[in-house]
Design a protein that fits this description.
16% of the residues lie in helices and 32% in strands.
């Protein structure tokens, strides 16, 4: 998606432990978590995007020897995040898997067991990487409203809603020269009423945010506002 000029309109209030930031939008609150996910406390829904499970196996099918340990790290992080929250449901905003090539029998078994391990239903808003794939018990759902939020994979506009999306894999460039870091972040574009979630998966890259977007960095399980 080409960069767009954006400006921030809301200043979230950080929590004392630094691992959560409260994002306020038209009287509604969304918690931005240091675990690269968002939490709707009113509806008790955990939202995340871009896990890209099976990415290593997808690359291996093309002869690229990527280690097969990313899925375990990603799924363990999801369970560790969900267990203390006890969500009513978990919603993945697309790209749960990386491709059909990586959707092995082992990964299918892990996905089938995931709702029981989470202790709640798992929903998938279909992303571009799921196209042409079928996961038993986990149909791809269309973009949809959740209270004031419009849930989608790619950025979408829905009047009267704040768009929560994935797909962009937003990162912020922090520092200069050899000391520059690329850190995953939440990014808010006020002109498009869009909040993009960072990629959740362990084996995912990222793309720098557009000028003027409001950003919250995620590092070492912490999240903090960044104006750099």
């Amino acid at each position: 998606m080409p960069p767009s000029s954006c400006s921030a309109a809301h200043n979230p209030t950080p929590q004392l432990d630094g691992s959560t930031v409260s994002f306020h939008w038209q009287g509604q609150v969304l918690e931005l978590l240091g675990g690269r996910a968002a939490w709707d406390p009113q509806r008790r829904v955990l939202l995340l995007a871009d896990l890209h499970l099976g990415k290593a196996e997808s690359f291996q099918a093309h002869g690229i020897p990527l280690p097969s340990d990313g899925d375990a790290a990603t799924l363990n992080a999801l369970l560790a995040l969900a267990h203390p929250l006890r969500p009513s449901r978990v919603v993945v905003l697309g790209d749960l898997i990386h491709s059909r090539l990586g959707l092995t029998a082992e990964l299918r078994a892990k996905l089938a067991a995931l709702p029981e391990l989470l202790g709640c239903p798992l929903h998938l808003v279909g992303g571009n990487h799921e196209r042409g794939s079928w996961i038993d018990g986990l149909p791809q759902e269309p973009s949809q409203a959740l209270g004031p939020w419009w849930l989608s994979h790619s950025p979408e506009s829905s009047p009267g809603h704040l768009n929560l999306c994935g797909h962009l894999h937003p990162v912020a460039l922090v520092g200069r020269g050899a000391d520059r870091l690329r850190l995953p972040c939440f990014s808010y574009c006020a002109s498009q009423e869009r909040l993009a979630l960072p990629a959740f998966g362990a084996l995912t890259g990222g793309h720098p945010t557009a000028p003027g977007e409001r950003r919250w960095l995620v590092a070492d399980g912490q999240v903090l506002a960044w104006d750099g």
